[in-house]
Design a protein that fits this description.
- By secondary structure, the chain is of the alpha/beta class.
- It has helices at about 35-45, 55-75, 110-115, 125-130, 140-150, 190-200, 210-215, 220-230, 230-235, 250-255, 265-290, 305-315, 335-345, 355-360, and strands at about 10-15, 25-35, 85, 90-95, 105, 120-125, 155-160, 165-170, 180-190, 295-300, 320-325, 370.
- The strands form four sheets. A five-stranded mixed sheet has the order 9-8-7-10-11, sandwiched between helices.
- The protein has two domains: about 10-135 and about 335-370, ATPase, nucleotide binding domain (Nucleotidyltransferase, domain 5, 2-Layer Sandwich), CATH 3.30.420; about 140-325, 2-Layer Sandwich (Nucleotidyltransferase, domain 5).
- The protein is about 40% helix and about 20% strand.
């Protein structure tokens, strides 16, 4: 899996057995391969509108595929894997509108990856949901329900990657136990923070390491409360987003309103904004459905930012906010593990999307298979 942050590839080796709806699974290994700085910058620039030639596009897809192969080899050096699920690198995501069917583009050469790793590859997971009228995202809520299972009360799982997304899992007992699993994209997690840090440090840093910059600043609460009133944050699910909406252009607009803040205050404000976006969605969901989770399990790169986690705990009062690591899943492994499960579902012919989450007309088996020659 390579996410919106475009900082590298996370690979997980796992074993799945049993009933597809409630699989037994075992986490075996994890490995990560970082993108070279020039590659990461190119992916981000393309996502912000940079035009490239057909040759450059082909070279980029080959390089990305090669790095995914490196991650696979590092994670599974003995070649134990019988199947590979690979999401690829998202370079553009366009949610459906009243006049546009939407689309989601991930760069990956599936047949090449299958050949490099000598193993079948399932890829292009979002396309089937999109052609059924869905957003193609988020896909992880159904996998979250299968991997994490139900708790004593409603359980929420939050991914803090480039974009923040939530999954709600009904409790194991009580009147809500038969309710739907739901999920959606909340808005920016690290994407605006990362762009701001890169700008403020003149390119020396690409993200706020351990939240050290935010820790030196003070969040402007008046600015945050003004931003929260924007239409996207008041929209009901299904909803999805990406750097196309919350990228450099959006940061440039927000920076105008923070012209009087120090660089540290800017990063602190954007970091707190991420937590405020999540808290806002939790409150909106409660207002609409009278459902509030008892715990918030957090994954993704944002788990390594103590200021972001502190802001979450401050703004999500009444919730137990903990890392998914407490359930035995490394914070960087959740999405890669999920797409491994999605690949296993593909060969079992088990639908991988949730129409109530993505807005698709129906459920579908997701992904395309490529076999080594």
């Amino acid at each position: 899996m390579s996410g919106t942050s475009a900082d590298g590839v996370d690979a997980v080796l796992a074993e799945f057995t049993g009933n597809p709806s409630k699989p037994k699974w075992k986490y075996l290994n994890i490995a990560s391969v970082s993108y070279p700085n020039d590659l990461r910058q190119l992916v981000l620039d393309i996502g912000q509108g940079l035009k490239v030639s057909s040759k450059e596009w082909l070279n980029l897809s080959e390089e990305i595929t090669g790095l995914h192969a490196q991650a696979g080899l590092a994670c599974d050096p003995k070649g134990l894997a019988e199947l590979i699920g690979c999401h690829g690198q998202t370079v553009w995501h366009s949610p459906p509108t009243a006049i546009h069917s939407g689309g989601s583009l991930q760069l990956l050469q599936g047949p090449l990856l299958a050949q490099l790793l000598n193993c079948p590859v399932i890829f292009d997971f979002r396309a089937a949901d999109v052609v059924l009228g869905g957003h193609g995202a988020p896909l992880v809520p159904k996998m979250d329900a299968a991997l994490f299972g139900a708790g004593k009360g409603w359980r929420a799982i939050l991914n803090l990657g480039g974009i923040a997304n939530l999954t709600f899992i009904p409790p194991e007992n009580g009147p809500d136990q038969y309710a739907f699993v739901v999920g959606w994209d909340c808005g920016p997690a690290n994407t605006l923070v990362d762009f701001a840090v890169h700008q403020i440090t003149n390119g020396e840093l690409t993200y706020d390491v351990n939240g050290l910059i935010a820790a030196q600043g003070h969040a402007d609460e008046l600015i945050i409360q003004r931003w929260i009133k924007e239409p996207f944050f008041q929209r009901n699910p299904p909803k999805s987003t990406g750097r196309e909406q919350f990228g450099r252009r959006d940061l440039k607009h927000r920076m105008k309103g923070m012209a009087n803040l120090t660089g540290e205050d800017v990063v602190a404000t954007l970091t707190a904004f991420t937590a405020a976006v999540v808290a806002n969605d939790l409150n909106n969901f409660y207002a609409a459905h009278k459902i509030r989770p008892v715990e918030l399990l957090v994954s993704g790169g944002g788990c390594n930012n103590p200021i972001m986690l502190s802001e979450l705990r401050k703004r999500c009062l009444g919730l137990r906010v903990v890392s998914v690591a407490e359930l035995g899943i490394p914070v960087q492994a959740r999405e890669a593990l999920s797409f491994g499960l999605l690949a296993w579902w593909h060969v079992r012919k088990y639908p991988g999307n949730l129409p109530q989450v993505t807005g698709a007309k129906s459920s579908a088996v997701l992904g395309i298979r490529a076999d080594p020659v």
